[in-house]
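Deliverable D4.2, example record:
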Amino acid sequence: MNATTPPGPVPLPGAPTCPSPAATALRAGMRRGLIELRQSFTNGADLLNHVLWPVLMLITLFFLRDREFASSGLLLGTLALPGILGMNAAMGMVSMSQILTAEREDGTLLRAKATPNGVRGYLTGKVISVAGGLIADLAILLVPGVLLIDGLAATGADSWLTLAWVLVLGLVATLPLGAVLGSLFPSTRGQGLLQMLALGLIAVSGIFYP
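Output generated by the structure prediction step:
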């Protein structure tokens, strides 16, 4: 007689299937990112960081709102606000690299590497927390800016749609680059070179005055 292999267990109809390790890591990363984002708005120091920069930019726009650029008939505030929004979105690259460099030094990233699929969940959480914080900062700047700057309140729906997809595209481009740069710098002191480069680009970019 030929020995036959007994059939394996047959799953019951409607029984839950075991999720893959990658999916579990992504869900854990999403939860972690949302928790970190919520904590950033309940912690006093982090909340100040969210509010301070948009408020400083709004003060700058307030003083530029009635100044005309050359003889173009365009107000400097109207020209500067889109550039400031783009600058804040691009600074997500710097924020991401700062976080990864600091957490590699304090051992947080090492603990993530010791967990199965931990790095995937860790990066997912950081993308959500950094992107969510940036979008909140942009909203703090944009909502009062629309009321402060002439010509923006009457902007059509197609312009707001363009702003949305350009912002998403900018975050998709800059956050992974920030993660790569954060893995290259050996220390937070070395990472400061990236901040100096970013500030130099801001100074010559024509954001505040073409």
